[in-house]
Structure formats: C-alpha cells, structure tokens
Amino acid sequence: MTRAVVRQLSAPELKDMLESDTPPILVDVRTDWERAIARITGAQWLTKESYDGLVALDRRTPIVFQCHHGIRSQAAAEHFVQLGFERVFNLDGGIDAWSSLVDSSVSRY
Fold first, then answer.
1. Which terminus in the chain has less CB density within 10 A, N or C?
2. 4-30 pLDDT, tens digit each
3. Residue among 64, 67, 76, 97 flagged as catalytic
4. Residue 107 maps to a domain
C-alpha cells in the first residue's frame, strides 16, 4: 500500500469542498493574534483538545489544513499523513489566497 501524500488545494477548490454535501474538516494552525485578524468561517483552531479529537477520527476523514501562506499548514498536513490519514490537504497560499481569490471580506495581513 502506498502512503498518502498531502494534496495542494487552491482557495476556489476549498470553497467548493466546503459547500459540498460532505465538507472536509478545516483546521487553522495559525496563532491567536492571526486568528483575531482573519478567519475562514467554519475553521477549527488546532489546540491540544482539537488535536486529540482529530487523531481519533477515521483515517479516511478529509482534513484541510490552513495557515497564513501555506507553510505551517503543510507541516501539519504532513504530520497527519504520517499518522495514517489518507485524505489530507493543504490550502495553497493559505488564508491570504482565500482573501484574494474567494472572500475579499477576510482581512489580509
């Protein structure tokens, strides 16, 4: 069996996934102060408690990680692939791309 890889997702692709009948779990790995500036509706913040809940999920659960530009979220996504998750995505360009390409009401910083 080949190991899953982190798949890059554009902001418009994430929008489509979130609006689908089976939306993925969206995980925000940014800091408190970053989240105070801008958020994608429905994203859950990665905390110790949410981490424990995520690792307990079925390994086929689709999870999308996002940060400011996509670097920290890539690292988090790779960690979840190492844990055996099969449907792991990284928001390419992070919340900055989301603001530019999907929802201009989300503040850029």
1. N
2. 899 999 999 999 999 999 999 999 999
3. 67
4. no
Tokens of 80: 């979840």
Are 30 and 68 a contacting pair, CB within 8 Å?
Answer: yes
Please state, for a pLDDT cut of 90, what percent of the chain lies above it. 96
- Residue 106, in any domain of the structure: no
Q: Report the alpha-carbon distance of residue 45 to residue 18 in Å, rounded.
A: 16
CB atoms within 10 A of CB 56: 7
Which are the contacts of 69, defined by CB distance < 8 A and separation ≥ 6? 93, 94, 96, 97
Active site residue 67: yes
Structurally, the chain folds into a number of domains equal to 1
- Cα 69 to Cα 21, 37, 106: the distances in Å are 27, 14, 14
